[in-house]
Amino acid sequence: MSEYQLRSGNPADNSRLPVCDIGVLQHSEKFYRLECISSIEAIEAIEADWRKLEQSDDEPFTYFQSYNWCYDWCVKQYKNNPGHGIAQAKIYALWCDARLLMLWPMMAKRSYFGIKVLTFLTEPLGQYGNILVDRTQVPLELGPQIWKLICRDAEVDAITINQYPSTSSLDELLGDVGIAEQSSKAISFLDLSQFESWDEHHKSLSASARKQRNRRRNKLAKAGVVDYEVIPGGSPRYARLVDKALQMKQIWLQQTGRRADILSKRCTASFLTGLSGKAGSNERPAGSFAHALTLNGEPIAIEIGMVEGDHYYSYLGAFDWKWRDYSPGKIQIELAQKWAKEAGLRTFDFLGDPSEYKSQWTNSTRSLNSRSVPRSLLGWLYCVVWKAYLRGAVRTAYHHLGSERRKLLLKLLGLGARQNTATPKAGSLLRHSKTGIDAKILCAAGYAIAELFIL
């Protein structure tokens, strides 16, 4: 992830300025104004309008467009990186009669190759792309006009609209613009509203699944005193658990030959530890939470999640690698789902990253769409050649290498962290040229390098 900074405006009062008027749109007898907000002061000035729009928009999967998430991220990025930002917030706001009707949080950033791209604000930390919109006040016919004005304002090589839910308001607004990417990604979630209680959900599982979960819990119980706690954001204990979860995740990534540079950034830890949450005995939880499965008082599995309305987002899960044979991560997931049901939540969302294990914990899915819109020749190469074709093929080849070969490859490229465990020698992995391993290694190397330099 690149380092970011917002342009700082200097408004003379507490109005919605400074903003950039993009254009005026008309439908029937109504006039609408589209603005682009690019300063922290302007974001702060529309807080009440932003929150009101959140409450009026009953569409799911919009947490990463909420005021708390976007504003906290912007503030952390601005304060952590003064004078070094290479991205600019571009939050598109649609107004009618001084009422905010739509928000599309975006940002323009430049890759190391010089490709300037407009993409969702907070990406890749934000897991879903979406918009906030009052669907009763914004006619669908305005979609093409809004899109045209955004394209004109963006001044980028490409617009990438990654991982937005199908049949969402954004899906309707975009229609068939640009290049649709072929992707099997989908939101996996447990619809808790199908069950009157947690016991009813447990009874709905197959007999083998119930036995397997019981065996896991019993095995861990024999190792010591097991406890479970849920800590709302804003406390020192929450911050420590976030830091611990990030450390655990880094070890898991190293051991499995994977990379997620965003998780090692100082600004990521600062952002996640700074999120707030609240939980009262007589009210539904809201905001950010840290779940901890502890053994003899020490966390062995941690989950960072967020609650918006009756929707829980399972954002980041990690476990202590040395306890992996006890499946602490799976035990923690079960306890987190039980907590969500007992707290009155209806949806337990595993987000869109594809993983086989999710099918064991969910009962519903919703597909995710991605589209790319080239705006220059360089953007066309990025969207058509790299994003729509090469990236997926190279990523697949990389993951098919297996964990040991991935670790070796990252080490050869100087991208992997040093390991305490033994790594197979290069010759033992590369000598079987007839099996095509050499080609896979070279292909995967291209992917690892591209991850460093391409958006």
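the 2nd protein, sequnce then structure:
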Amino acid sequence: MMGLRDLPISSPGEDRLGLKVYAEIFADYIRDCSTPTTIAIQGDWGCGKTSLMRLIKSELESGSQKDSPINTLWFHTWQFSQFSQADNLPFLLIQDLARKIDSRKSNDITNRLLSITGALGKGIALSAASIVGQGEAAKNVIANLEKMSKGTDMAHEIEDLHEKLMELIRAKARTSGRLVIFVDDLDRIRPVRAIELLEVMKLFLESEGCVFVLAIDYEVIRRGLEEKFGIAKAESLESYFDKLIQVPFRVPQDRAGNRLYTHHLLDSLGIKHSDKDVELYVNLLDRSAGFNPRKMKRLLNTILLHLMVGKKLFNRPDIFPMHLNVDSADIARLLFAFQCLALMDYAPLKAFPELFSGTVEEIRERLERLRSFSREDITKPHFDGLREALAKKGVSPGMLNGIVERYGSFLETFYRAIRFTGAPDDQPISAKEIQKLREILDFSAIILEQQGIDNELQDENCREN
């Protein structure tokens, strides 16, 4: 099989990110922590949240003892949010978990859910649930909702549902050990839906003997609260997050682990590389879009396609010049560098338009500026365009040094990545190197352009979700 699958880890033997040790620590914590507790596994989309949760689940199940038994349940929010079910997602969670805890007693829970949702309509029951127990305002809203539901005592219905669920969870904990509920893919649904789901979990499902482990990011909480309640202040967001989450944990990014992971991926694809190449791959992605296992897989799959196309067309000198005599490791590293350049917010760097346009001397001068970027004084004239572009983007003077340092670190790495094997590091890039770079990039232009289109579509899809 060619290419890298974008699937989470399913067993400890597949761990290449060094997550197993964290899974072991969390498993020990979950076995002994006070309950109820909600743990948030945080991180960007594709950073390994699901993989870490699966490893925690595996550790809990493999280490479960008679004196401290553990029951684990898994809920995929993404699956339930499809087919026009997003409005009912919180109640689908309750129904699904009740069925998995005790299928014989889940019918009563289902009937009560139907009573609430049938009386109030989609979404209204959730609004009532989220404000129950919050004073006079709650009483007024419930009174209004009761009128809408033709006299149904909604406060009683909701409280009764809560008690039935607590009874179900406590009974399970007494007979079979504490219950650990994993909720995945919260960052793949609309942020406001994620907030609604968290509110229902907090209200209905928190019980002694119950631990929730969520895959979510703080940014999802922020966007959801802003959409649902108009909350935008940092202190309000932090307070709300603290109310929902007792144990936040961000998926760690270990540089040594990232190198081992990248080395493993390159080996799996059969892409030729050295230890120096691996370091450049890691630094390029880390200093552009930020290191991310999913992004690394996606970029390397594209590199594999480039190399396969090049190999197929080796008998076409007009398309892939044989006379260049370029090592495949150099081609792969070079193309990866330019893909990372496209991933970066490169628009402000107007000081370097059309990197490989113009004469050889013009290109060499432009590339030398890239190499010296991090050591240059930002006030010098040839960075005027960068300063102006950053100012238009709302970057304050206080943030400027950090932005420049980030760009500088990436561009210095980029320059080293596009040098061919054997080229002296202390010498400017040669005319022969520039000619090779131009021809290779001309060959790859179509695929690189398509990659840029795919990135834009992916970003748009993420915004819609």
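The first strand starts at residue 37 and ends at 42. The longest helix spans residues 431-464.
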